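CORE FACILITY INTAKE
Project code: CF-77B
Contact: R.S. (postdoc)
Sample description: multi-component assembly, two entities in total
Requested service: structural model of the whole complex
Turnaround: standard
Below are the sequence entries exactly as provided by the requester. Do not edit them.
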Amino acid sequence: MEQHTAANSVIFLEDVFRVYQMGTEEVYALRGVTVGVRHNEYVAIMGPSGSGKSTLMNLIGCLDTPSSGNYFFNGANVAGLDDNELAEIRNKEIGFVFQTFNLLPRSDALHNVELPLVYAGIKKEERLERAYEALEMVGLSDRASHKPNELSGGQRQRVAIARALVTRPSILLADEPTGNLDTKTGEDIMRFFEELHSKGNTIILVTHEEDIATHANRIVRIRDGKVERDEITR
Amino acid sequence: MRIITDAKEGLSIALQAVRGNPLRSALTMLGIIIGIFTVTLMGAFLNGMDQLLRKTASSMMTEVYFIDKWSWGGGDWRLMRNRPNIPEDNLAQLREKMTTASAFSMSVGEWNQQAKFKNRSVEHMNVSGVDEGYLQTQSMEIQYGRFFTTSELSSARPVCIVGYEVANRLFPNSSPLGEVIRVSGYPLEIIGVAKRVGGLFSVFTIDNTVIMPYRTVQSAYGIKHQSVTIAVRAKSIEHKLDTKDEIEFYMRQIRHLKPNDQLNFGINNQDVFNQQIDGLTSILSIVGFLITGLALLVGGISIMNIMFVSVKERTREIGIRKAIGATRRSLVIQFLSEATMLSLAAGCIALALAYPVTVLLNNFLLADSELQIGFPLAYAGIGLGLAIAVGILFGITPALKASRLDPVDALRYE
């Protein structure tokens, strides 16, 4: 396989460290991670709890910034960006799918899906149109006015996926997306991810379950804050 | 317009929050409601008070100076008591010498007198003895009847003009004209009724006075008054201070005072009252606005408190919003909109309560009173402006706190 570089990857982390200050002690969550993801890859990031997997996901998702090292997003280094610039990248380039769905409980499905477009400053008519499209894509256009508590777990996760896709982001970042779902619904969601992948989306899946990880084409294993193994599986 | 989109999102969140927690929202707004309610009523009250006080003072002409043994507006009482009297003939001397005066008059007063008609009586009223210059130096108007004729004035005829209060008390249902009342036992025929002055201190004004010729007072009380009050009206309102200086100059001359000697008479003017009213009004305003400021502070703190709770409760929601791209600015605007909406709604409720209260007060409690509380539209504006200011002022800290939350921590918050 051709080597990942900042130039040929959607995201490229280069010798990234993340150090937390715990009182007087320094805790190294990541110790020199170098990893890249190219367009239309489907990568699973695996690792036991405490491996630094979540820290890595937060960095990839631009929710956090590295203590040292570089992070190139579409070729531009984002390691030193401020809060607002990071918010813009999260808004435009990253679609998050969480284990606990993280929908706004008091808003209906349509508003949840529309919300990233609100923060992108897009006009109302276009927002609604695109939010409907996204809901249609996940097969829930008939549930647009339902609140999250009126939807099943699988439906909620599909609303969350619609929200993640509505801004047409560069990467879809899914953190244990099936963790709160029963096996069958989980399989449905994974099949849906495969479909999205085949349509050209770039997907990064964070999980600790081997079964789930096998859906991806490449598995990056993290242990003790380092990349332990990085293999193509399909 | 980002800011409008963000504010709209904030308002819809706020509406959801209010719907989700109606009792808590109501309690939060209560503080502001009380605050704005008090501010508005206090402002309306002060406004009414000020108008009333000025009405009282306006019964005097601003360009008339009253030369009197006593100085208005305070001073050492014992010192003033020992001042020399102002004799009648000072009037003729001033009239002869002064060039900046347009009218002169002389009067004497008796306080705490009684007037009777049949079985009705008025206690604690005033008696004034006046001369032909009275109408030129007082803003009294005759409502019914007429003023004294020259012969009535010079021949001490037993006639009088009564003030509104006196007339009203002695003749509640009939015309006083032509009736004979007894003032301290002395019979007087009423030939005129003065127009009502009104105001807060009507006991001191013409309303509570029986006016009679100067010579009649002397006959009625059987004494020659030792000290009179001389009223001098300036030719020009703009240059009335020149007139005051002229009065001082000739009075010093008449009394043989050296330039360094203190004045031993008063040159009194309505301005003294206006100054005192200004002083009183500003004290009332300061006290009033301290109290209402306190009420608003309490209201503001309750908004701040509830906003902190709201931020805490919605930590995870804030995390979600940040994850999908909300900037700090967006979140600040959203939470500020919520605080402002709450306080603005509270302000509207307060105004909606305050207005009928002023109407009720005016029509019932103050129905017979001179004091009428106004409700100028400007106060509604000020009230709402204050509400918005409180919302922003006390909402900003919680809003900033929300915007600065770390998204990773916030998303993990249970």
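Facility notes:
- Chain A has one domain: 40-66+87-232.
- The CA atoms of residues 10 and 74 of chain A lie 5 Å apart.
Invoice: internal transfer
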